[in-house]
Amino acid sequence: MSARDFSKISPAIWTSRRFLSLENDAKLQFIYYATNEHVNSCGVYRLKDAYAVDDLGFQLATYHQNRTMLISAQMIDFDSEHNFLMIEGWFKHNPPMNCSHSTGTLRLIEQVKSERLREKVASFFAEADALRMAREAKKKADRDLKRTAEQIEMGDGHRLQRILEKSGRR
Question: What is the CATH number of the domain that holds 81?
Answer without folding.
Answer: 1.10.10
